[in-house]
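Deliverable D5.2: sample structural annotation.
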Amino acid sequence: MNAVAEKISFGKALLVIAFLIASLISGLLYFGSSPHIPLMVTAAFAALVAVWSGQSWSDLESGILNTISMGMQSILILMIIGCIIGVWILAGIVPAMIFYGLKIISPGIFLVATCIICAIVSVATGSSWTTVGTVGIALLGVGSGLGIPVNMVAGAIISGAYFGDKMSPLSDTTNLAPAMAGTTLFEHIRHMAYTTGPSMLISCVIFAVLGMNYAGKELDVSAINDLLNTLSTNFTISPWLVIPPVLVILMVVFKVPALPGLFGGVLLGGIFAAVFQGSGMTEIIKAAHTGYVSQTGIEAIDNLLTRGGLESMMGTVSLILVALSLGGVMEGSGMLHCISLRILKYARTTGSTVLSTFLTCVFCNIAAGDQYLSVVIPGRIYREIYPDLGLHPKNLSRCLEDFGTITSPLVPWNTCGAFMATALGIHPFVYLPYAFLNLINPVISIIYGYTGFSMEKIPVPEEVQAELAELD
């Protein structure tokens, strides 16, 4: 643990947290700001408090740079992922995954199919927002035509979209969580399979049972056919285009380093773009740099496929840099250490630590109103606590997504909840009872915490054991 922590009192650390919450609420709700500026202002305020307490600026600056260096791998991965998304859309890889996903629609399994389709699209794009705002809207219309309650359909859409948002290596939160916790991307994804996999399976079973009441009804597939026809007209669709995503999955399984593996995905996407879509080098480079721009004339398709590119990730990269700067000041000054010690008075077991992580993430989603901050703030607070209790950092990264990412669309004033309500035209409290994945996933994760199942352990440092003994 950090020796400089003795210079900062818990009261001053709490003052910075209160300032952070106040600045985020005022910035996000009243001034229409993104989280960037409130975080930057809070970092400056935290630095002032630290200097007031006797810290030197050079120590704080070192803390900022050291913390940023911890997140550089994720930042580089995000930049490569931006290139992958643009090139994979140009190559027809993402359109092919959407095309084949939509093909599995059937009246008897509509709710299950909706959940699976949204999961496929979200894994392919790395974005729950894009999935819900495009394919999700089309599926909502089909469900209405079948006479299925819109809250059930919306719950299936949200469940599938957030499965992909968690498990896709193209997702920003999937990259952000391991950066905050101190583990690697693919290690994080593999560890999430223990909680997200069973949650998805249980959700699909429940949707299947609910869907039995609507089996045999005639399916109005006009909206789906419009999407299928537009995709097949504008892209060469082939089963061979599924190869790159399969290779990414194999990379996760065989523990290939993320940076070279994903960069290989960019090169493979460029080859597929040239072979299957007849794209030239200029088009491939432009898609990698500024993203793909869809011009099919069908708004739903254009909204879905106009995305990607290196530049598209710069907003997220800047948010990570600002958040890491705030974390660096709080860590370098010992504020996070003070908060960690206070939490350790109550969270002394694996189960209680996981439960407190859940409460912290949900609190951030409610108070800060932003999905990213429900990952960043608890990630910085608990980064020391998990190893101090003998828990591998990947346990924390999994919990950040099980609790932070997954609960964000259930809060109406959260940016995610507000978007889902606007896109689907349904209040989050209306679809909440049917967003089974988002409800089941945190419960399973908490159960794992108390039973110890899949909670990988590491040795507790001797100095930490001594400090914990003093707390007793």
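Annotation notes: The first helix runs from residue 10 to 30. The radius of gyration is 23 Å.
The annotation will be released with the project's public dataset once the embargo ends.
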